[in-house]
Design a protein that fits this description.
single chain, alpha+beta
Length: 230
């Protein structure tokens, strides 16, 4: 009886402790990374200014923790005033020379360490998405947005080369092919992911066919016996 009543309290206390430890690690590692990578920040900032006119950083509108607006900071990798779809695809003409390299190496994401330090993001978590994309899958994001978006995570790694995966003619960012592999190289599904944030990237369940769907049994072959014939 005692364990039954102490269980929920212990679970809640465990969640609070895990969240506190995760937040402490985020702050410590983000602060350390900002100090260690500060020379790299300066070099990239200088190259951005030299490569093309415009600001060093730009802010992308994203939906953050618990639905709060997030003005996500990135190194600028496109020409000033570039329009078009929000996604960056392979051979995107809007990219500067340095921007194409930043997009390949993902170094344009480094300024997001500042968001981690401020508590707006975490080092590991779901990918932050645009308000229009979140609105399309509101029910899924009601669950996803309960945790802080991450600088890295499963979806960020799966879409590390999204420029070659996504269809440039589709502004919603659907894959070029309907074939999507998840989990491991040997497990693929034939379903298209509904969300880049993993909201609906579920593998189809394997169900046994009903009795009506099963093929009829093969007729057994009669065994001829010459002693029983005639």
């Amino acid at each position: 009886m005692d364990s039954k009543f102490k269980g929920p309290g212990r679970s809640r206390a465990g969640e609070i402790l895990r969240a506190a430890v995760k937040r402490a690690l985020d702050v410590a590692l983000a602060a350390l990374a900002l100090v260690i990578l500060s020379p790299l920040f300066l070099v990239i900032a200088l190259l951005v200014v030299i490569d093309s006119p415009g600001p060093v950083f730009y802010r992308a509108d994203r939906v953050g923790f618990r639905g709060r607006p997030l003005r996500m900071l990135k190194f600028r990798k496109m020409r000033t005033g570039a329009g078009g779809v929000a996604l960056t695809v392979a051979g995107d003409e809007r990219l500067t020379r340095l921007g194409a390299w930043l997009a390949r190496t993902k170094l344009d994401e480094l300024p997001q360490l500042w968001h981690v330090l401020r508590g707006e993001m975490s080092l590991v978590g779901p990918r932050p998405e645009s308000p229009s994309f979140v609105a399309r899958f509101q029910s899924e994001y009601d669950v996803i947005l309960r945790v802080r978006p991450g600088l890295t995570g499963y979806t960020q790694l799966a879409f590390a080369r999204e420029g070659t995966i996504l269809d440039p003619s589709d502004p919603q960012g659907q894959p070029r092919s309907s074939r999507w592999c998840s989990g491991s190289r040997s497990r693929c599904t034939a379903t298209r992911p509904r969300s880049r944030s993993g909201a609906a990237q579920r593998r189809p369940m394997r169900t046994r066919p009903s009795r009506e769907q099963r093929p009829p049994p093969r007729p057994s072959r009669a065994i001829s016996n010459p002693l029983l014939e005639g």
